[in-house]
Design brief:
This protein is of the alpha+beta class. It has 28 helices and 23 strands.
Amino acid sequence: MNSWTGLSEQAAIKSRQEHGANFLPEKKATPFWLLFLQQFKSLVVILLLLASLLSFVVAIVSGLRSNWNFNHDLIIEWVQPFIILLTVFANSLIGSIQEFKAQKSASALKSLTKSFTRVFRNGELISINVSEVVVGDIIFVDAGDIIPADGKLLQVNNLRCLESFLTGESTPVDKTIDSNEKATILEQTNLVFSGAQVVYGSGVFQVEAVGIKTQVGKIAKTVDDSVTKLSPLQQKLEKIGKWFSWFGLGLFAVVFLVQTALLGFDNFTNNWSIALIGAIALVVAIIPEGLVTFINVIFALSVQKLTKQKAIIKYLSVIETLGSVQIICTDKTGTLTQNQMKVVDHFCFNSTTQTDLARALCLCNNASISKDANKTGDPTEIALLEWKDRSQLDLKTYYRVYEKAFDSIRKLMTVVVQKDNRFIVIVKGAPDVLLPLCNNVQNEVKNIENLLDQSAGQGLRTLAVALKVLYKFDQNDQKQIDELENNLEFLGFVSLQDPPRKESKEAILACKKANITPIMITGDHLKTATVIAKELGILTLDNQAVLGSELDEKKILDYRVFARVTPQQKLAIVSAWKEAGFTVSVTGDGVNDAPALIKSDVGCCMGITGVDIAKDASDLIISDDNFATIVNGIEEGRKTFLTCKRVLLNLFLTSIAGTVVVLLGLFILGQVFKTNLLQQGHDFQVFSPTQLLIINLFVHGFPAVALAVQPVKEKLMVGSFSTKNLFYNRQGFDLIWQSLFLSFLTLLFYSLGIIYAINNRDLQTSGDLINRAGSTCGFFILGASAALNSLNLMVDKPLLMTNPWFFKLVWIGSLASILVFLLIIFINPLGLVFNVLQDLTNHPVLISYSFGGVILYMGMNEVVKLIRLGYGNI
């Protein structure tokens, strides 16, 4: 190595000021308080806050009107706005906590800040932190080092760099100091790039770009500029939430005005507050308050499950998008294969033994494996070391005295090793180059070439080895050096392959059963890619494989294997499938993969081999670099969507039924029972806002969690799975008739409760007690029926014909919700707050009405299922 002066400390400081420091700026994390405030941008939340504010106004007016006599009516009026506020804040807190956790898991550590490199400063070779490297520095690197910045080579000594993270090429690149002006920047062999790994030799280069201005940094900027993707379900929920909000706001105004007019203007101060409370109850009934919260909880539980299965989800929404994936564009090396070259076959010529062949390949080798299994060097040479038990090869008795390094022109590597008084010349390299240099194969060349063709036909890489013995060697004798690679004795060859993972074939088969199309995109050779793709079942026809250089963008959808692909071509492939309307997942581990990872619907980065920028660009990180893990994620995504849909159906059931009950109650039953209630000094109200909040939160809360953790019985990975429609296969029809039937039962038993109270001596003297009697029946029927409806959604068969143990968690969740209602209606202090009749045990008729309504609702569902079962519609 020549002596280089390098920069002075003053020059380094000046360079840093002019060109910047050598690190990639991290994207600033959104603080928790801002995440919390962002939850209040939702129109649903704004409407609930407005309802809370108006409830406060009503409470204040009522307080002024009663001279602040805090009877139980006024207490309830003051409790209601606080409960609405508590609901809003709880929802927002849960949402912000989940986003904050996802944000923390998404922040990848920048490995550059922890690395050191060797640099010439003031004529001395010193070690500095990579972040301190500046433009103009002269850097020395050798095998095992990571290139710290982009630069131009000044000196090389058999330097080979692995740049697959940037170019997609899995073979190390031979570096020179000669430039090629016609080549692209990434193809310039006299340039080195930040993040590349030196696998062989050594070199000296001068830094030309650092930090964000390197090739890595330019791609990193596209990652920082990317936006968070919404899942298909989140997009639908955003629209549904807006629809509910505007519909609720419109009905609020209409109901308030009509109710005020119906109540009359004689006692306007009192009547407008009654109308306002009714309108607020309607808004609370319409809006499914738990919509976002329950979906986030389900997503979070699924994310935790996948984390244990080696899939780290960065954003909650990704889990559901996974379930809708139709195309998986996957790398070959390390994802479908083991990312570890292995000797899978060998040929020993004449009397050569496996031990002889293995010993020669280990001696002509510059890789190393330490006692703690730390591997350094070219992956192919490492595979040769791992082929046989080296302890049996007696390698320590051989001493290397000379090496003629491998280069891409000769395609050979030669070493001279000494044992006792013998000098053994060992030559390793390409079989087609090595065979003509051997003098013992003249009559067997054709047979050997046939064997080599068979290996090539299987997509295997072959390496041949030969040797000769000298009894005198002088490395200063140029004539002897020139003759080293002639008159050799052929020993044989080995065939190497990065073999497929055992689980990859099963995962590909699972994809095809699920109508998911796997696409292989690789920087490797077409023949190698084709063999692996056929073995795994990705490729069925030879004309479905194409080289990147021969790719016609109009025919992208016709191919299943793409070989020798550039990053731009990979991006074009992903874009073509997306433009055709497919949901696309992409795997990658290098900087060059970042644009495609961002473009895809679900970007999957390899956790072991993936670089930080690829991890930043991805939506989930596969910590075991295994294709099967992605397939597991898709299955979990499908289950998550199914669970979310069941929760949404239940939420919409109570929203629709609650809205119908409040509307018809106000305008029909309100007129029917108006006289009875007003004569006893009480306004008409089927449900209070607090009752509706309890139904929308507690009724669905326990079953929602239970649905998330309950194993599904459906075969989710058989056939296509669409997340485009929330309701299909008569689910929309069922939702309508169930909601209307539940509304009818609620209004019916509310009316029966009112009639019972009117005719009961203990209750008929108080309008408040009369209203509470009816409200108690309706409250329990609507809530308990919705809780048990979670079980209806689990199976198409009647519940009486299924084993309860299959859905034990949902049973537990539903019964827990019913227990909440029982506590409310039977514990007097709770009943007072939630507007139900106290001392209910004294009124068994009302208890029978409450349970009777629930039994009728569940019974009707069982009858409908039996009818369908009889007609073969299930």
